[in-house]
Design brief:
- The protein is an alpha+beta fold and 94 residues long.
- Helix content is 40%, strand content 21%.
- It has three helices and three strands.
- Strands 1-2-3 form a three-stranded mixed beta sheet.
- Helix 1 packs across helix 3.
- The model has no long low-confidence stretch (mean pLDDT 94).
- Keywords: Cytoplasm, Ribosome biogenesis.
């Protein structure tokens, strides 16, 4: 599978998984702006944004839920090994 296809699939799966989180620090609408994979697919940088959210708090909550989110990815995306998720603010894309 091409990296672009994989990244769009990860974006979709993570968007759904994040919307299902029951953490008060995670707002109802969190947008996964982009997912970038390292060349060895070992690390996926997930760029998120949320209107009116405390971004550092949101990133902390997502990092806390990393294990759960990685399991969702492992179950839904066919990959040899599941990449480690690293959450960043969408403002860091540039």
């Amino acid at each position: 599978m091409k990296p672009e296809q994989l990244q769009s699939q990860l974006t979709r799966v993570l968007s759904e998984a994040i919307s299902g989180l029951r953490d008060p620090r995670v707002p109802l609408i969190v947008t996964v702006e982009r997912v970038t994979l390292t060349t060895d697919y070992g690390l996926a940088r997930v760029y998120v944004s949320a209107i009116g959210a405390d971004i550092p708090e949101l990133l902390e909550a997502l990092t806390h839920a990393r294990g759960h989110l990685q399991r969702q990815v492992a179950e839904q995306v066919r990959m040899r090994r599941t990449p480690t998720l690293e959450f960043r603010s969408a403002e860091d894309i540039l």
